[in-house]
Amino acid sequence: MHDRVTHHSWINRLQTLLLIGLLLGISLLAGWLLFGKEGFWLVILASIVILLVEPAAASRLTLKLYRACPIAPHEAPELYRIMAFLADRAGLAHMPTLYYIASPMVNAFTVGNRRQAAIALTDGLLRCLSIRETAGVLAHETAHIANGDLFVMGLADYISRLTSILALVGQILLILALPSVLLGYAKINWAILLLLVFSPYLTMLLQLGLSRVREFNADLKAIQLTGDPEALAAALAKIERVSHSWRAWILPGWGNPEPSWLRTHPATEERIRRLLTLRSRHSGQWPNQPISYRVHSPRHSSPRWYPGGFWH
């Protein structure tokens, strides 16, 4: 199993480098076509600044947005035992802080970086999954931290935003130049025009593709941490089933399959299939029983809505 995991990991790393290179290349091209050498170096300088500066405020803002509260070790000792084991296996110098979200939605996410990370778990997830399945989910989130996914995806997001800003500036300049074009004093550069139209969409698709690759890589890393692919597969199946019922209730008519290239995550069926191909006789070291926890937190709040839809 180890050889297959290593093989898949190398493929995912190469795909990540390719996608990041394409994202940066589109941004550099946009800067060059719009502002010449100055625009090219501006994009490089902005990318270097992004590499050197990892904003911590975004992590705190995300946790505050979801009204997450930290889980004390005595409130969920089983979770902390699992987390300590996973952090040690992943080689993390600092164990991620666990946060609790009082929501019936079944969800988990990670914010921060290797030095200061936080993993948030909803009440719905803790009630829905067994200890073994939760260990699989925590291993997946720990893998994101160990693999540097938070930084990679943050970098991709900033490059995508920079490209969109360049495209917007170019569109404004084009509008300002329309009188000269109509009077015949200037000509339209069709290469720049096409770039202005399509570059934001291209970077969005590349960013989505990068996200899917990193999710597969986190699944593989989670297997290395736990040695129990069936635990994560069972958790994914259960989360998908529960989430589907929530979405069908909140959004009637939901359920039509979306194109794979528009997903932030790979299809759950594909993730489960890949995980089960790596199964072993080892059944995991954590039991299939509910988690015992008691967190002092505000009462459940209904799912909140933002311009992109309900969070999940």
From TrEMBL:
<keyword id="KW-1003">Cell membrane</keyword>
<keyword id="KW-0479">Metal-binding</keyword>
<keyword id="KW-0482">Metalloprotease</keyword>
<dbReference type="GO" id="GO:0046872">
    <property type="term" value="F:metal ion binding"/>
</dbReference>
<dbReference type="GO" id="GO:0004222">
    <property type="term" value="F:metalloendopeptidase activity"/>
</dbReference>
<keyword id="KW-0645">Protease</keyword>
<dbReference type="GO" id="GO:0006508">
    <property type="term" value="P:proteolysis"/>
</dbReference>
<feature type="transmembrane region" description="Helical">
    <location>
        <begin position="16"/>
        <end position="34"/>
    </location>
</feature>
<dbReference type="InterPro" id="IPR050083">
    <property type="entry name" value="HtpX_protease"/>
</dbReference>
<keyword id="KW-0378">Hydrolase</keyword>
<comment type="similarity">
    <text>Belongs to the peptidase M48 family.</text>
</comment>
<keyword id="KW-1133">Transmembrane helix</keyword>
<feature type="transmembrane region" description="Helical">
    <location>
        <begin position="188"/>
        <end position="206"/>
    </location>
</feature>
<keyword id="KW-0812">Transmembrane</keyword>
<feature type="domain" description="Peptidase M48">
    <location>
        <begin position="73"/>
        <end position="277"/>
    </location>
</feature>
<keyword id="KW-0862">Zinc</keyword>
<protein>
    <submittedName>
        <fullName>Heat shock protein HtpX</fullName>
    </submittedName>
</protein>
<keyword id="KW-0346">Stress response</keyword>
<dbReference type="InterPro" id="IPR001915">
    <property type="entry name" value="Peptidase_M48"/>
</dbReference>
<dbReference type="Pfam" id="PF01435">
    <property type="entry name" value="Peptidase_M48"/>
</dbReference>
<feature type="transmembrane region" description="Helical">
    <location>
        <begin position="162"/>
        <end position="182"/>
    </location>
</feature>
<keyword id="KW-0472">Membrane</keyword>
<dbReference type="GO" id="GO:0005886">
    <property type="term" value="C:plasma membrane"/>
</dbReference>
<feature type="transmembrane region" description="Helical">
    <location>
        <begin position="40"/>
        <end position="58"/>
    </location>
</feature>
